Description:
Layout: E1 3-9, H1 14-27, E2 32-38, H2 41-50, E3 55-59, H3 60-66, H4 78-93, E4 100-108, E5 112-114, H5 119-125, E6 130-134, E7 150-159, H6 161-176, E8 182-183, E9 186-187, H7 196-200, E10 204-206, E11 212-214, E12 224-225, E13 229-230, E14 233-234, E15 237-239, H8 256-297
Parallel strand pairs: 1-2, 1-4, 2-3, 6-10, 11-15
Antiparallel strand pairs: 4-7, 5-15, 6-7, 8-9, 12-13, 13-14
Amino acid sequence: MIRQYCTLFDRNYLPKGLALFESLKRHSSEDFELDVLAMDKTTLAVINELDDARICAIPLVAFESAMALKGLKATRSWTEFCWTCASNLIEYLLPSTTIAPNFEITYLDADLFFFSDPKQIFDEIGARSIGITPHRFPAHKRDMERNGVFNVGCVTIRNSIIGHRCAKQWAAQCRAWCFNRNEGDKFGDQKYLDVWPLEYGSEVCAIAHPGINLAPWNVSNYEIGVGPGVDGRAVVFYHFHEFVDETHLTNYALRVSDIKHIYAPYIEEWNAAKRKIAAIDETLQRKWREMELQAERA
Length: 298
């Protein structure tokens, strides 16, 4: 079986997206494919230039047309539109007419990075149709659950009857309303997940492993060590929320151990991704110049 992942990003998140891909290549014990909704032409060109069967770019124009999203872009900020696209990407990639319980899609935010085998996610989800991760806010930040008990950074949906229904409903909800504000029981694409454990019952796995979606908002709950490890268990992936560069890691307070064992190796990979993008960009510029010369000669 080939494990199916999807994500989306534009040129601003391109180094993070490539770092995510490299981490999957390094740590996945299973064959996988990462489908990327390329939010601009630069991202599309760079991914196509990688020429790697494990990563596939989806042009935004084709996706917008298929999911009837073109009219929404003008009504939302770019961030809100990207949030809208995440749930719709899952619906887009799930077979629309065939229920195939052995097929599943896992959406990943582009700013995630794997430190150990992602198979641990699916071992915990088991045969259930839906896998989501709680934010696990520390007690003094529990009021942040007003934005959602669960985090959208990693969502697995199986193409079972329940999973298919969940994906379609979530995508439709986000098309109708997905804004960066609290309004009633809504916030972005995220607060819709709050009701899933009630609505879908035992088909939902609220993942308990502390190393799955470890993040700056919850890392203070745990002891971080070599590996990196979290309370003696392997960190599966970390969510580099708010990461800009070496000078701005996050707005949350971090400890020396967090920076040493988690952020330092990520910065190295992020910089390597930037160098790869620069090399690809140079190759693309050369190809485009050659095409222009050929056109002039013609």
